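Cross-check.
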Amino acid sequence: METITINNLLPMVFAGMEDTDKICSSQIWGEQSFVFRRGCRMCIHAESGCGKSSLVNFIYGSRRDYKGEILFDGKDIRSFGIERWCDIRTRSISFLPQDMGLFPELTVMQNIELKNNRTGHKSRSQIMTMLERVGIAEKRDALVGKLSIGQMQRVALIRAVCQPFDFIFLDEPVSHLDANNNRVVAGIISEEADSQGAGMIATSVGNHLLLDNAQFISL
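Predicted model, tokenized:
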């Protein structure tokens, strides 16, 4: 996948607000066209309630309550069936939701392997190296439900790169990480995206992912 294009996109909940400052000041909502290109580096910043999570969920196909169009390489995603979406989510788009989507009753390694066993993208030694880099290798057999929020975010970030992708979307991925851990996980994600020529799009309300040479977009 080379491009994700959004045309006149607006959440249904914002219908009737097209002429308000909230929408008019956005660089995405209501724009005639906005394009994410493979290889891009973007940080989307907005206050809480402006629709950051809505945007990434619309693109991932997990929500459809919007006006306008979302096109993958020119094809409207509303026309995609289940099989097409399964392929896209396995090979083309990786998504880290704000709630992380981890299973608290499973261990750190089990959570990561839920994805990696499907994709076969990383070896166990590569996963362990990433866990070491983010400082939680000793937690590999710990139940995720016993971890801190910051530790959970690091697990979820590692799981997010255990697949091939053309784009990776990360919804407030470092909200509970300090600057040092932020740089480490940003480095891991950047390395993986660079190796695949992929685009990286992260949202934030303040503590943004520390990507080098990122373009900042106001939602």
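The chain has one domain: 3-218. Residues 179-196 form the longest helix (18 residues). Passed to J.P. for a second look.
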